[in-house]
Amino acid sequence: MVTRRRLVAAAVLLPLARTALAQTCGQVTARQTEGPFFKPSSPQRVTLIEPGAKAPRLVVSGRVLARDCQPLKGALLDFWHADEQGDYDNRDFRYRGHQFTDADGRWRLETILPAVYPGRTRHIHVKVQPAGGRILTTQLYFPGEPENQRDGIFDPELVMRMSGRGEGAFDFVVG
Ligand SMILES: [Fe+2]
């Protein structure tokens, strides 16, 4: 009887679990403008921290998932953001770098907290491209930033989950 009851419970719960997963991964991550400061051919690296940088450190991590929640191995993530003064490096590659997801679709970026620059709230730019797939250009945001509500590009769906000030998480879902 116990076994039978368990089977019935499993039969009820499995579709529920599928629904929950579908809700998590079904929505493709929103696209955003790349802005004026993207530069191709960034170096491959997981840390962007410059020697001697005194700005607060930031670690951002997450996964790249397909719409059916499958983790995507070998997806390209190309990050760029403003430095501690709110400036982009348009001559060289400071605070620019790309990396690829591991077998579980995971990525991890070590960097500094980008400064806010006039006209925008605090953000990180990123291009995500599944192997052989279409590029998703978007931006990541920080919760609780005063400028979020005044920034016309800001999208609450692109806010990272933060543990403390220095650790953010975000899963990209690509179509
Ligand atoms: Fe920007």
Secondary structure layout plus pairing:
Layout: H1 2-25, E1 57-66, E2 76-80, E3 96-100, E4 106-112, E5 123-129, E6 136-141, E7 161-163, E8 167-169, E9 172-174
Parallel strand pairs: 1-8, 1-9
Antiparallel strand pairs: 1-4, 2-3, 2-5, 5-6, 7-8
The protein binds fe (ii) ion.
Structural class: alpha+beta
Radius of gyration: 19 Å
Please report the total strand number as a whole number.
9
CATH superfamily: Aromatic compound dioxygenase
**What is the ordering of alpha helices and beta strands?**
HEEEEEEEEE
Distance linking N and C termini:
44 Å
Q: Which residue ranges are poorly predicted, with pLDDT under 50 across at least 5 consecutive positions?
A: 17-23
**Percent of residues in beta strands:** 25-35%
Largest sheet data: 5 strands, mixed
The CATH topology annotation reads as Protocatechuate 3,4-Dioxygenase, subunit A
User: Roughly what percent helix?
Assistant: 10-25%
Ligand inventory = fe (ii) ion
> Roughly what is the average pLDDT, rounded to an integer?
91
* CATH structural architecture: Sandwich
Q: Shape from CA axes?
A: globular
Structure described in brief:
By secondary structure, this protein is an alpha+beta fold. It has one helix at about 1-25; strands at about 55-65, 75-80, 95-100, 105-110, 125-130, 135-140, 160-165, 165-170, 170-175. The protein is about 15% helix and about 30% strand.
